[in-house]
## 1
Amino acid sequence: MLGFVGLIVSVVLFILLTFRGWNMAVASVLSSVLILLFNRMNLFKGFAESYTQGFSEFAGSWWLLFLLGTTFGRCMQDMWLSDAMARVIYARFRGRVILAVLAVSFVLSYGGIGTFVIAFTVYPIASRLFQEARISRNLLPAVMLFCPTTMCMTMLPGTPSIQNMIPTSFLGTSIYAAPLFGTVAAALTGVIGYLYFWYTTAAEQPVDTGPSVAGKMKIAPADYLSFLPCICLWGIAFFMNRVGIESRTAVAVAMAAAIGVCIVLKRPSVSVQKSINEGSMQGLKTLAATSCIMGYGALVQSTDGFRLCLQQLLRISTSPVLTSILAINVIAAVTGSSTASLQLYYKLFSGQIAQITLPKALIHRVTAIASGGLDSMPYATGVAIANELAKTSLRDTYRHIFITCALIPLAVLSIMLLLLSV
């Protein structure tokens, strides 16, 4: 029981530290020490094995994409390509900046580009658009994360996300499971989310962001060339995925090619060496912070307190569908990972799954959507990366992230299940 109390206290401490602006590395280590002490585990062994394993596995798998992603974003920024894209997008969407950023992230995420890569790609463009429209940067992380972590991660049929693939191996379904249910849920989520962003921007006073980025908004023919790096990135990644090349490899090659296109299009006064050096250093910094979160998550899963938490969830006697949603979200909240929540749910809750009377396709879609709820905790990797890139404080941005990336998907799932039962 003491270990379970330690689990709760550790999670609360992690949240408080991140809200108060502590570095993710410090917050994760202090929270890890607390949970190890409560669970009466050896401190050195806990860090040397569980924490280090989680840290190194993530860093080893993703370091190249983080370096390439931040370098690409820096090149787009330094070489004025994001400014040119901002001018074109701002004009074509007639100043509807939020809709423009959501549309760009939607196309990229539904096309198979991962959340991390989308954050690196969209940020320089979105940042310029927000500056032009004088919208507070506190909304920027939520807008960047909204499509990749809701509609395009768990709802839309055929989305190539891990969360949409995990149920297929346990239920024998396909990634196109329950297409009508998923499409309606995605449409509702998109509309409610956009209305929230629209209301929030309308209610706030315009912020002083300095001089206009897009000037007089006159689009020069050369501005359209600024889309070439992003087109290159999406096109190469999509083609390589289609021919069966592993996703991360495909995206890495596509990003390297996109950086090459940026260099070709650069202005003579821009230093390529400086852009690449500063971009890669930012990538290492972001990777280290994110890997610390993954290390903490791995350590949590190795404790007796976490195992006791799972046992208590198994004992819940209520509707099997409600139990599945609750269990998935509790695991997601503790680990900060939708992937971990789905994997553990399908491995440990097979008895509860067998009691659900819904068709397997609907079970697939319901559990997938449920995993996209409380995975958006303050220490979740996507939340950390978005705030790191936007240089914003979690205290200022998390309200918007939690409402759009956690509450809205769960509310939509509840509405869909109620309609299903009518």
## 2
Amino acid sequence: MYMKKIFTIILAFAATTCLWAQVTTIPEHIPTGYAGEITFIFDPHAGDKGMIGATQCYAHMGLITSESNHGGDWKYIINEWREDSPKGQCYKEGDVWKLTINNMYDFFGCPTSTDIERIAMVFHDGSFGIRTGRAVNGSDIFVYIGEYYKKCGTNLFWEYNSTTHTISITGSGNMFDFEPGDTPWNHLYNQITHVSLSDGVTSIGDRAFDGCSELTSVTIPNSVTSIGEWAFYYCSSLTSITIPNSVTEVGGGIFYGCSHLESIVLSENITSLPSCDSDGRLRGFFEGCKSLTSVTIPNSITSIGEFAFSSLTSIIVGADNKTYDSRENCNAIIETASNTLIAGCQKTIIPNNVTSIGKWAFAYRSSLTSITIPNSVTSIGDGAFYGCSALDSIVWNAKNCADVSAIKDAPFDGITSQIKSFTFGE
């Protein structure tokens, strides 16, 4: 046990500590097992800025311990939400709010043997108030304790260079999986521009860089074998990325909302481009990648989830792929065995030997203006052209389609009113 000394946890910007933090501590690093007095400094002008103008401030606090199931599983919570408890009452000093406690184990009522990973907190302006202070993306605020301060995997550690705005991750093994707003660098989400993973890192965890809106480049070493769900979700400044051939598994939604992604090289050893559920709605692998116009599907791919693409003008399937093809330079992905077109794009020309157009095959292709359905097509899946906001001309040659009476319904659901030309051809 450390000698007792004054330990002040200050929630805010303090002149002697990191100027980018919403919540700072004095000392900046809280050691494991520390039992001294602590003071918090909270800057209401940082994070989500929800407490600007508040005339009183209370801290709703708890712990994330080794017994927590995830980053939102608080233990040893000191008070009820919006409780005007003296225990969590902060005092104003200049532009910041402060809170002083004598001993974190006594304060939270937990045994000294508790493995504390983080102190979790959200601020509010009392039981009759309307303001809350959270991290900039609306998540909980965390102060990391002891070895967890710079830890992002069992044997992985991270550092941030404020000059180059680079997160460097070193060590060996897998990265932790994270919940939304749960990463130790969450407070830097709008400052990180580069991520560098050292050789020895074997995975990128779920939501690792979720919402890092200024991230422009990522260096992934050949030691990485898997990338988790939503890993680069809404990294809207990311323009290009190479996934090395060492990667064999990727999660769903990892590039969802990467609106400036222009170029990607996929691993030749991944087998799936999965979709991922979000609030009951499937999100495609490249959905929302508005600047991505061309992609090459590796020979190894055997499964492609729904809504995989949204803005492509060119799709090429590897010549040796055994499951899919892009025959006759059609700019589409066709399931070879069934002759089903499962994904098209703005410049797709449907080959005459395609017999089926799959569910959601062209959904949300906002630049698609016209399409010709060949006479070989006998079925079209529901929502095949859903959300094609510019599609206004259709040539229908599919005289053997199983349900001609429904051609303007399910496949073209939501856009029938905008179709100016619907021509029956051959």
## 3
Amino acid sequence: MPPCLNYRVPITSACAISSPRRSHPSSASRVKTANSSRSINALSEPILALRKATEQRRDESVHAVQMTMTTARISEKVPLPALRILHLSDLHITAKCDPDVLLGPLLTDLRDRHEGLSLEKVDFVIISGDITNRASPAEFEKAQEVVSGLARHLSLSAGRLLIVPGNHDLDWDCKVYEYKRKRHVDPKTLVEGAYKAEGDGYLIRDDAQYPQRFRNFSHHFYHPLLLSEYPLEPTAQGLAMLFVPERLQFFLFNSAWEIDEEYRERSGLCPGAVSRALEAGNRQLREARERGELGPEDHVSRLAIFHHPVTGNEKIHDAAFLEQFRRNDVRAVFHGHVHEERVAIEGHLSPFRHLHVVGAGSFGAPGSHRPEAVPRLYNLITISRDLQRMRIDTRCLRKSTGAWEAFTVYPGEKPGAPKRA
């Protein structure tokens, strides 16, 4: 509110008239009095106008403050919309893939207000591996076209695409083993898991060449899409990403880091990658609190993403890292690989920390690569803004030329069980 102004009208001697006796004023006196009155009126008019303008500005300021306070009260009452995360896995894109054929039905299902999900945009997209079929440069370039098109339609920046590789995203043609006859090898120098006996010799892993299996993934897909190289060193293949406005933190891992042509089923997470990612995540939280971006008591929901499952068939055999996840308050794991919907709860006996494990099925694998009677699938993850509730809508495409429709909803009526839509 503007400060009050104190205006003083000067009093001139012409306004003070003294007479010792009653008499009619002379003509000269009447003229002098009239002139004085006109002088006072001439001075008063601009003062009154200024005072009126000042009062008007004061009233406008009061009104503006009242409107601001009213708007703030209304804003406090309107809850922020829930967070939406689109989860795709096992796209198995080939060089002949038509992006419009793959994306058109998906975008229709997301936007359809009657039989679809009634969404124009999402907050994040997760792609949990097996993006291509054979990891060729041509397939990755087509995949980059598909994913960048999806991001454009959903008005998403590249930083909100959360992507990890799968076993179909490593270059199987990359030569990483060298054959040596036994007489040329000292068995004491062989490292478990880095060689394989064959005939009269050994296939010995070339550790310098081994990380190059993911070069096509990085060079032809990840870098053009996200404008940064994917780390080829296994211990660096654990990424922590904090999003302060949403109070979400993601951990991204390569569960195919030790899979090759000789050890096709050797899925898992590199221990060094797990340790470094969790430490990086903790450091991100500390620094955000020091900068005042997060309050001391602000809760952040932590989510992990990798390709292979940790439950059921084809699971990671050494999944002890899940205990590290639980102790570091990771609340959910999202994966792919098995081409079917899969939901489980790890650590359900703990009174403090449960870990939800959610598989997305296959978004693009042909029928011959999916379990019998299992359609193509994708998930929409909805997380409440208070980070206390999570819902998984699984959508299905029963025929390749058909439309996406409801399949299951998690949680179902029983804890840990999905409900059929």
## 4
Amino acid sequence: MCVHFEKEGRAKLYSSVNILLASSVQQMDRHSPKGLRDDEYEAGTKIVIARSEATTQSIDSAFAFAFLQVNRHSPKGGLRSRVLLLFYWGLSNLCSINTYKGFRIMPKQIKVAQKSLEELLWDSANKLRGTVVSYDYMNVCLGLIFLKYAGDRFDARRAELIAMGREKYIDHPAFYMSENVFYLTPVSRWSYLIENAKKPDLPLLIDTALAEIEKNNDALKGALPDNFYSRLTMDVSKLAALVDIINQIKIDAHDFDLFGRVYEYFLGKFAASQGQKGGEYYTPKCIVRLLTEMIEPYKGRVYDPCCGSGGMFVQSAKFIEAHGGETNDIAIFGQEQNSATLKLAKMNLAIRGISADFGAMPADTFSKDQHKDLKADFILANPPFNLKEWRAESELTDDPRWNGFDVPPVGNANYGWILHMLS
């Protein structure tokens, strides 16, 4: 509540009341930094109204209500209750100054936090999950976000070619790939899915679109879900509603970073809902950013031996852009043994136009290192620490990565991760 005096020369008669009110508000802020509860504010409001009516009955009624609220929350008294009563008393006296024209009391301003587009999309999408398990639903949502991104990028490039008077090249893949845009056949375009979103074979149409995109773009080989939507038990009407929600992602000009933010937001929310399992493929953004700021990967080869969904690489690119550099100044190398997680990483980078070498296949870094000859300039990783039984007693005992050191124990992989990175 804000109290303002707009007239010069305050009456000395009321200065003590004003100071008392200010003091009580200060104490309230000190002991209750979140301010008045709604019921406490309501009690104060009633006193203001009662004073304006200037009747004994209304004032007594308002104070009775105020005492009731104080006793309700502080039955044993205490500092908060005394501060509240002091506040109400000072407010009451101050509000009785009806003849002072320069005085006004501003009502409490309730701040309603505006939700971001990412939050709104998540809230809407999460309501449609139904009986689909969290991990599967994550792939449902992220696959659709990728399709929307690819479709919008394609449409923008197509319009650009037409504007340049190159209509005859609008169906030539090379004119899209040269601008890091995925070429889409008619059945793999987002506009086609929107037109057919109410049809009962929508899951098959989505799977077909993903398969077509992967077939026509070498950079996406093995990156997209394979016949995933057709195998789901999700109600088709809910899937159609989810398509409509994802379709709300709108971009301005060529600001495609929005898709990356939505993708990352959904990924983080799903990981949080899965607890420890979520940590297997997602490291919290604040940790990733801290690691990136510490090693400052401006230029060179960046490596993550257990890359999960690729968050370290995304943040490296953001770091470079934030410091006026070029993302082409870094080369990205990673490895992930979980095939589903590797798909998430490939889509995560593809949706931001970042290329990477993830090796020939998903594989365990210890038993099948796919970057043996790599000499990285930067290593960003959050490995699964305290991993037990990561090798058999007879396995990897003479691995060159341990040369000059003791062989890492079978019961804990921490030392193994350290030596792998040092090698």
